[in-house]
Design goal:
This protein is mainly alpha-helical. It has one domain: Up-down Bundle (Glycerol uptake facilitator protein). It has 9 helices and no strands. The model has no long low-confidence stretch (mean pLDDT about 95).
Length: about 230
């Protein structure tokens, strides 16, 4: 490990990824299996929970690791040369492990309702592939634009965007490979079967790269148009 990748950075990415997954999975378990709410109410609660938790996590860890918690965000930061290849690889590793631990801890919290630590999902989400391209696209574009504009409200804006898009995309906006992997390991309502999860991950990387291309186009040094007189 180089001096540029500290234990504090890796710890921040691990903890943030873990609690992000816990918010996504536990809120659905609580509302669907404990409170016996309808799916529509559970999705609304899930959006609020994820938005609030994500805002706080970004505010907590933004100054430590950049608060990526998401392999596609790390990929874009690598393309922007804000992180090294080695740091990006380490971030991806701890993000993924953190997400899996988050699923395990969630199941342990709700042991009486579920009774397992891991259970491979069979939830079919093959109808929602395009939703992952769209959701990831707007997430990455928003992050890049907010950082470029030196916004002081990045945590709030990203949290609101994720919460809103969770209710406005066909996939309920995973937009995060480590979250997708973690949700393959829960047979609850929030889960996704592995084959769909793998396609989701591909769609997420496509959406991220499209967003990066649009971002570079917006801030291209080349100018076009009618010459002013």
């Amino acid at each position: 490990m180089t001096k540029r990748t500290s234990i504090s950075e890796l710890s921040a990415e691990f903890i943030g990824s873990m609690f992000l997954v816990m918010a996504a999975v536990s809120s659905m378990i609580f509302f669907v299996y404990v409170l016996e709410s309808s799916k529509s109410v559970a999705i609304l609660a899930n959006a609020v929970a994820v938005a609030f938790v994500l805002m706080t996590l970004i505010e907590m860890f933004g100054s430590v690791s950049g608060a990526h918690f998401n392999p596609v965000v790390t990929l874009i930061m690598l393309l922007e040369k804000k992180v090294s290849a080695k740091k990006a690889a380490l971030f991806l590793l701890v993000q993924t492990i953190g997400g899996i631990v988050g699923t395990a801890l969630t199941h342990l919290m709700f042991w009486e309702e579920k009774g397992f630590v891991f259970s491979v999902s069979e939830n079919v989400r093959s109808h929602a592939y395009l939703g992952e391209v769209i959701g990831t696209f707007i997430l990455i574009l928003a992050i890049l634009m907010l950082v470029k504009g030196k916004s002081t409200h990045v945590p709030m804006m990203v949290g609101f965007l994720v919460g809103g898009q969770l209710m406005a995309t066909s996939s309920t906006m995973f937009a995060n490979p480590q979250v997708t992997i973690a949700r393959m390991l829960t047979s609850t309502t929030s889960g996704i079967r592995p084959i769909d999860g793998l396609v989701f991950i591909i769609m997420q990387f496509i959406g991220a790269l499209l967003a990066y291309a649009v971002y570079k186009l917006i801030f291209s040094k080349n100018t076009y148009g009618v010459e002013e007189k």
